[in-house]
Amino acid sequence: MIVASVGDNCVDHYLGAPALEFAGGNALNVAAGLSAAGLKSYYLGAVGEDANAELILHGARGAHVATDRVRRLPEPTGVTEVRLRSDGDREFVEERYGASAGYRPDADDIAFLRTCRWVHCVNLADPEALISQLDDVPVSFDFGMDGGVELVERLAPRLEIAFFSGAGLDRGRAVALGERAVAAGAALAVVTRGRSGSMALNSAIVEVPAQPVEVIDTLGAGDALIAAVIAARVQGQEIEQALAAGTAAAAQACRHYGAWEYT
Questions:
Q1: Does residue 258 lie within any of the structural domains?
Q2: 191: helix, strand or coil
Q3: Domain containing 70 — which CATH number?
Q4: What stretches of the chain show up as alpha helix (H) in DSSP?
Q5: How many independent structural domains does the chain possess?
Q6: What's the CA gap between 113 and 117, in Å, rounded?
Q7: Helix residue ranges per DSSP H, 83-220
Q8: Residue pLDDT, tens place only, 55-87
Q9: Where in the sequence is the domain holding 247, given as residue range(s)?
Q10: Distance CA 84, CA 17 (A)
Q11: pLDDT per residue over 100-130, tens digit each?
């Protein structure tokens, strides 16, 4: 089964000692997680024509992600400056989207995506333009921490899963966030809450606590959860199983530097 993740990529550049650099970005991280779950995973997005582009492509291929639909644009490849706190939580000091900001899937990309078993989207300049052309394909979208009413209401009716980052929200606000997406038309909403676990909502609420783990780096944990949940649903698992798989994947992502482990 072919699945695809569409949107941003960046080089995650860690400040301080040690200074590290990894391929990353929300959409590329999810593509890597889908591949790790055993699916044929494609990443669609844009890189520049610089050395950082090669780091992105090398990292993606190391994660067994197909990159033949990655476009090169005359802009720098995106870079995110990352600082780790003493507890392993990551802080984004600066995000420069670069080539990703100018990416738009073309007609050939859309034709390909219409053949996929699932399409995940995140950090697109105009997600509605793409999602509106994928009527017969299950689609998920990562709203991140931006649960803006207008965007949710526009996209939710077309979404199989609406993902939200609710770290820092209390349970009541997290539930309200998910319920709003479902009321707007999403088949399922998933809200990640960091160390407070995660929840999935449709006509019921499923909650799974975070797995205890010695945290090295939280970067990419949310994307790992998203990928594992999608993979489980593609493979026919129930919501409870999918959320448990996502929780395990998020915990594993916290055990190493960078969003995923290179193989």
A1: no
A2: strand
A3: 3.40.1190.20
A4: 26-36, 51-62, 107-113, 127-131, 149-155, 171-184, 221-234, 239-253
A5: 1
A6: 9
A7: 107-113, 127-131, 149-155, 171-184
A8: 999 999 999 999 999 999 999 999 999 998 888
A9: 2-253
A10: 10
A11: 999 999 999 999 999 999 999 999 999 999 9
